[in-house]
Write a structure and sequence with these properties.
The chain is an all-alpha fold and 278 residues long. Helices cover 87% and strands 0% of the residues. The protein has helices spanning 3-135, 151-161, 165-228, 232-265. The radius of gyration is 57 Å and the shape is rod-shaped.
C-alpha cells in the first residue's frame, strides 16, 4: 500500500473518530439535559391520563345511575301496563255479560212483565166489576170498596210506564257492545305495549352490563397507573444510565479508531531507520 493511500485512510479514520467522539459527548450531554424534561413530560402525561380516567369513571357512574333510574321507571311502567291489561281482561267478560243482559234478557223480561200485566189488568177489570156490583147491593156500605184508582187502571199505568224501558235497555246494550269491542282492541294494544316495554327493559339491562364492564376496565387501568407511577422515575433514570454507558462505550471505541488513524498517517512515531545494503 502506498504511503499516500495510508495517509488518506488514516485521515478518514481520524475524522470519523473525532466525529464519533463529538457525537458521544453531545449524546452524553443531551441525555442528562433531557432527563428532567422527560421526567416532567412523563409526569404530565400520567397526570392527564389519571384525570381522563377519573372523568371517564365519573361519566360511567352517572350513566349507570341514569340507567338504573330508567330501568326502575320502565319496570314500573311495565307493571302498570300489565295491571291495566289484566283489568281490561277481567272487565271484558263483565261487559259482555252486561251487553247480553241489557240487549236480550232484560228487554224480554220487561216484555213478559208487560204481557203479564195486561192479563192481570183484564182480571182486575173483572174483579173490579164484581166488587162494584157487590157494593151496589142495598144495605151494603159503599165505602167498603171505593179505591181512588181502580186496580186495572193502576196495572195499565204500570205497563205503560214500562213501554220505553226495552228500547232504553237495547240502547245501553249497543253502547256496551261497542265498549266491549274497544276494550278488546285496547287489551291487544296493552299486551303489545307490555311486550315492547319488556324488550326495552332487556336492552337497558344489556347496556348496564356493558357500562359495568367499562367501569371494571377503568378501575383496572387506574390500579395499574397507581402502581406504575412511582416506578416511572426509576425507569427513566435507568434508561438514562443505559444510554450514557452506550455513549461512553462508543466514545472509548473512537480512541482505538483515532490511534489507528494516527498510526496510518505516521503521527507520533519515530523516524523509520534506513535499510543497509549488504
Amino acid at each position: 500500500m502506498s504511503a499516500l493511500l495510508r495517509r488518506m485512510i488514516g485521515f478518514l479514520l481520524i475524522v470519523a473518530a473525532l466525529g464519533g467522539l463529538i457525537f458521544s459527548i453531545y449524546g452524553l450531554m443531551s441525555v442528562w439535559r433531557l432527563k428532567p424534561v422527560a421526567m416532567e413530560n412523563t409526569s404530565s402525561s400520567l397526570d392527564l391520563l389519571q384525570a381522563s380516567l377519573d372523568t371517564t369513571d365519573q361519566g360511567l357512574s352517572v350513566a349507570d345511575q341514569s340507567l338504573r333510574s330508567t330501568i326502575a321507571s320502565i319496570s314500573a311502567l311495565e307493571s302498570t301496563v300489565t295491571t291495566a291489561s289484566k283489568t281490561f281482561e277481567d272487565t271484558t267478560p263483565v261487559i259482555i255479560t252486561l251487553t247480553d243482559l241489557t240487549s236480550n234478557e232484560l228487554p224480554q223480561t220487561v216484555e213478559s212483565t208487560q204481557t203479564s200485566l195486561v192479563a192481570a189488568q183484564e182480571s182486575a177489570k173483572i174483579i173490579d166489576s164484581v166488587l162494584r156490583a157487590l157494593v151496589s147491593i142495598p144495605f151494603v156500605n159503599k165505602d167498603i170498596y171505593n179505591p181512588p184508582v181502580p186496580l186495572d187502571v193502576a196495572l195499565g199505568n204500570v205497563s205503560k210506564s214500562l213501554d220505553r224501558l226495552p228500547a232504553s235497555l237495547k240502547s245501553i246494550g249497543s253502547s256496551l257492545e261497542s265498549t266491549s269491542g274497544n276494550l278488546e282492541i285496547m287489551l291487544a294494544d296493552m299486551d303489545q305495549m307490555a311486550v315492547d316495554i319488556r324488550g326495552i327493559s332487556t336492552s337497558l339491562d344489556d347496556a348496564q352490563g356493558v357500562i359495568q364492564q367499562y367501569q371494571q376496565l377503568v378501575n383496572d387501568l387506574e390500579s395499574r397507573l397507581e402502581n406504575t407511577r412511582p416506578k416511572v422515575p426509576g425507569w427513566i433514570n435507568n434508561l438514562a444510565w443505559v444510554i450514557t454507558l452506550a455513549f461512553l462505550w462508543l466514545g472509548i471505541a473512537q480512541f482505538g479508531l483515532l490511534l489507528q488513524g494516527l498510526q496510518l498517517m505516521g503521527i507520533g512515531q519515530g523516524p523509520k531507520p534506513s535499510a543497509e545494503n549488504d
